Amino acid sequence: MNEQTPKQIVEELDKYIVGQKAAKRSVAIALRNRWRSRQLDSESMKDDIIPKNILMIGSTGVGKTEIARRLAKMVKAPFIKVEATKFTEVGYVGRDVESIIRDLAETSVRMVRSSRLEEVQEKAAEMAEERILDVMVPQPKKSVVNPFGQLFGSSNDEEAEGNSDEEPKQYQAGREWCRKKLLAGEYEDKMIEIDIEDNNKPMVGMFAGSSLEGMGDNIQDIIGSMMPKKHKKRKVTVEAARKLFQQEEAMKLVDMEEVTEEAVKVAETSGIVFLDEIDKVASSGGHGSNHDVARDGVQRDILPIVEGSTVMTKYGPVKTDHILFIAAGAFHTSKPSDLIPELQGRFPIRVELTSLDKEDFKRILTEPQNALIKQYKALMGTEGIDLEFTDEAIDCLAKLACDVNNQNENIGARRLHTILEKLLENLSFDAPDLEEKHVVVDEAYVKEALSEIVVNQDVSQFIL
């Protein structure tokens, strides 16, 4: 369970997301409250205090998804992002809302399994080395002794007795000699034939995207457990064999029953679900059309999961009472009050994210740890190019992004991706062949590269 204070959580989010203080504070408090509830002595009180779900309102590209994603990564919690528009009312073609919890359980199992596998890597590496030695120095076959030798005066017993000490000594000496070579890295490129498990599943995705998706997973697992383990021979290098053997041995050392038990508990107490495009399933004005009825149906299906229910997954039942739900939407054509009242009540914390201005764009380009300009400098650095942006160029790019957003569809910070990609298109193409490795992007460079877009607004709405 995360023990960071709300202030520390906000500071960590500030490293990646510019602005949006109100949204950061809300998620930080929600996360801390979850930790606080776990510290209570009274079990009944623990069960009664449920997470306060959050509704984020803001146009695309202002940081809604990024806040939720970074939050989950920070606290190492199972996290899934789903679009509300992918789901349909039960009985119609489309995904069943319960698949949200099945996906969350799957994510949780992957996380716990990955953690357990890391813990046994050292032991698995030793076992993998022994398996490689078994391939390179096969154990000698035991001599066959004639059981009637004594009756017929055969010398098989004496021969077998004479070799019984010599063969193991030679085998062990050869194995140790080979081990030294192996540890010295002399055999890494040597080709060997190995025998490994064939993990191909009998069926893949037969029911994907339908309401029978969960049943399909269960059938696949049942058939997989009934079928005998298949093995296949592969010719690989010793280096590749070590990785394959280590993976196999690590899986043998991990108790999957314990993993699934813990994963279900982690999903129930720490899971975070990000419901994007929630505004798309809100009825716009409640005109009573078929479209509005279908949207209400999706909301009513989502409601039990958000308010707390038990969903059956292939890992067992998962209770949704203490899962944190963060819903988000632009709400351009609808309002939060257009959601059905029961669902509105399940998102008590409302946060409005502000639109980004020129100063925000400048900060997004330069400040975060994963800032776009830092990314492009690193990419060009792989070609030996030293890319430099002047302050005037950054100012010009921020202004252009702001202008294009105002004149066309406002897609927030995502506009910077399209502008920078267009700006550096020629450089990216010519980078491997350039003799001049120091490239300065100044205001003149920006205006020249984007001149057609700046002048011709009709073209810019298609390009950017």
Automatic annotation (TrEMBL):
<keyword id="KW-0645">Protease</keyword>
<feature type="binding site">
    <location>
        <position position="276"/>
    </location>
    <ligand>
        <name>ATP</name>
    </ligand>
</feature>
<keyword id="KW-0067">ATP-binding</keyword>
<dbReference type="InterPro" id="IPR019489">
    <property type="entry name" value="Clp_ATPase_C"/>
</dbReference>
<feature type="compositionally biased region" description="Acidic residues">
    <location>
        <begin position="156"/>
        <end position="165"/>
    </location>
</feature>
<feature type="region of interest" description="Disordered">
    <location>
        <begin position="150"/>
        <end position="171"/>
    </location>
</feature>
<dbReference type="InterPro" id="IPR027417">
    <property type="entry name" value="P-loop_NTPase"/>
</dbReference>
<dbReference type="InterPro" id="IPR004491">
    <property type="entry name" value="HslU"/>
</dbReference>
<keyword id="KW-0547">Nucleotide-binding</keyword>
<feature type="domain" description="AAA+ ATPase">
    <location>
        <begin position="50"/>
        <end position="353"/>
    </location>
</feature>
<feature type="domain" description="Clp ATPase C-terminal">
    <location>
        <begin position="356"/>
        <end position="455"/>
    </location>
</feature>
<dbReference type="InterPro" id="IPR003593">
    <property type="entry name" value="AAA+_ATPase"/>
</dbReference>
<dbReference type="GO" id="GO:0005524">
    <property type="term" value="F:ATP binding"/>
</dbReference>
<feature type="binding site">
    <location>
        <position position="342"/>
    </location>
    <ligand>
        <name>ATP</name>
    </ligand>
</feature>
<dbReference type="GO" id="GO:0043335">
    <property type="term" value="P:protein unfolding"/>
</dbReference>
<dbReference type="GO" id="GO:0016887">
    <property type="term" value="F:ATP hydrolysis activity"/>
</dbReference>
<dbReference type="InterPro" id="IPR003959">
    <property type="entry name" value="ATPase_AAA_core"/>
</dbReference>
<dbReference type="GO" id="GO:0036402">
    <property type="term" value="F:proteasome-activating activity"/>
</dbReference>
<keyword id="KW-0963">Cytoplasm</keyword>
<comment type="function">
    <text>ATPase subunit of a proteasome-like degradation complex; this subunit has chaperone activity. The binding of ATP and its subsequent hydrolysis by HslU are essential for unfolding of protein substrates subsequently hydrolyzed by HslV. HslU recognizes the N-terminal part of its protein substrates and unfolds these before they are guided to HslV for hydrolysis.</text>
</comment>
<comment type="similarity">
    <text>Belongs to the ClpX chaperone family. HslU subfamily.</text>
</comment>
<feature type="binding site">
    <location>
        <begin position="61"/>
        <end position="66"/>
    </location>
    <ligand>
        <name>ATP</name>
    </ligand>
</feature>
<feature type="binding site">
    <location>
        <position position="414"/>
    </location>
    <ligand>
        <name>ATP</name>
    </ligand>
</feature>
<keyword id="KW-0143">Chaperone</keyword>
<protein>
    <recommendedName>
        <fullName>ATP-dependent protease ATPase subunit HslU</fullName>
    </recommendedName>
</protein>
<dbReference type="GO" id="GO:0009376">
    <property type="term" value="C:HslUV protease complex"/>
</dbReference>
<dbReference type="Pfam" id="PF10431">
    <property type="entry name" value="ClpB_D2-small"/>
</dbReference>
<comment type="subunit">
    <text>A double ring-shaped homohexamer of HslV is capped on each side by a ring-shaped HslU homohexamer. The assembly of the HslU/HslV complex is dependent on binding of ATP.</text>
</comment>
<dbReference type="Pfam" id="PF07724">
    <property type="entry name" value="AAA_2"/>
</dbReference>
<dbReference type="GO" id="GO:0008233">
    <property type="term" value="F:peptidase activity"/>
</dbReference>
<keyword id="KW-0378">Hydrolase</keyword>
<dbReference type="Pfam" id="PF00004">
    <property type="entry name" value="AAA"/>
</dbReference>
<dbReference type="InterPro" id="IPR050052">
    <property type="entry name" value="ATP-dep_Clp_protease_ClpX"/>
</dbReference>
<feature type="binding site">
    <location>
        <position position="18"/>
    </location>
    <ligand>
        <name>ATP</name>
    </ligand>
</feature>
